[in-house]
Give the backbone structure.
Amino acid sequence: MPIRWRLTLFIALAIGAILLVLGVALFFMLREVLLSTVEDTAERRAEDAARIIRSGQTLQADDVKELTLDGVFVIIRNGEGDVLTDYPDRTSEGENEDRVWKKALDNGHPASDKVEISGDGLDYIYAVPARAPQGRARVVEAGKSYKPTREEIREIGAILAAGIGVALLLSIAGAYLLAGTALRPVEAVTATAREMGERDLGKRLPVANPKDEIGRLTTTINGLLARLDAALSRQRRFAADASHELRTPLTSISGHARMLDEWALDGDKETAHRSVGTIRREAGRMRSLVESLLTLTRGDEGAPMEVGRYDLGAVAKEATETAGAAAEGRVSVEFVSNEHETTAIFDRERVMQVASILLENAVKFTPEGGSVTASVGEEDGSVALSVSDTGVGISEDQLPLIYKRFYRADPSRSAGGAGLGLSIARQIAEAHGGQIRTESTPGKGSTFTLLLPRNSPGYLTSAERPTEPSAE
């Protein structure tokens, strides 16, 4: 069942229950009031007639007229119960059933009962003993039939039932309209969402009232769409960049393989050797790119980390020695040791990867004869690994872009790099709850600083393993 009908049904049932309770309560209250009015009227007329008799007066025509208003009848009996006067004149079919006068006469107090003596249905009889001044016993009875009042009660019940029915129908119609008005923004959101496709995530759902529940939900969904759109855009750009980076080595491998197949293997061994070398080099480049892509993918998926407490200085020293050997004397690479250990909780292999990336980039962009220096220290409760170089530097407008995937500040000097190293480094740093800070002056060099919390966040310590000996 649609929400609109469910809301309508719920509101209608609630209003119907309220109307029913109020209607029944009002009906019984009016019924009680009307029946009490019949009884009060009979009692009052009986008391009035008894008062006249006690005074020794005779009921006059005006008194009788006033006493018998509104269908009231008055009976005056003697001490034996014989009817002396009956106002108005009538033939009573229930005379033998009337014993109310006897109760009043025997007890000396007023008595009442419900009997049929008027021939018009059930009557309320009220008897009052009244002794005349001459000492003669008298009993005054006043009665009133319930029939007219019961007919009024039935009419009131019918009117109340009809009113409740009409009110219930109006409430159903009103609830249906109100539910439709309340859910109209949902219909607009549904229609817009139905029209949206993968290529239309730039669209946003309409927000009729941002302060109500539906408006807040729509705003939240719009935020989710914005994040999805950004993620899909990055994914498309990432796939396009990866395809472009892979296409170059694949083209080179394919060309050299075709050349070897067609003529170089048989006719020109030197060319064949060069082609084989090129194929091996391009295959290695592809392998490095694929490994970098896999590293980024694992980081995006939140791959678990194996952390322990290590000396960051030992990691930096090992990475510096490896980078210095790879530089082959073209650039001076050295590690400035610290007087004491700089320990923290981190994944040693991944932090080693960050240090290697920073050192390799520094060597790559430092001219021959320049220098690269690595050092460790402490900053505001964090441990820091800094890599400084005397290279070409990075302009201020490029600093925010260098951590983007496949971005290269100077493609002509990239030396075959895919532009993924700094993205991987930042990803690893953020996975540890840290960051990488960059300071650079064009023409003078750059300094990259890896900052790691001394104690890793709680979500890492669950995978923490025992501390391994630091490399010296």
Q: What stands out?
A: The chain has three domains: 3-151, 213-300, 308-461.
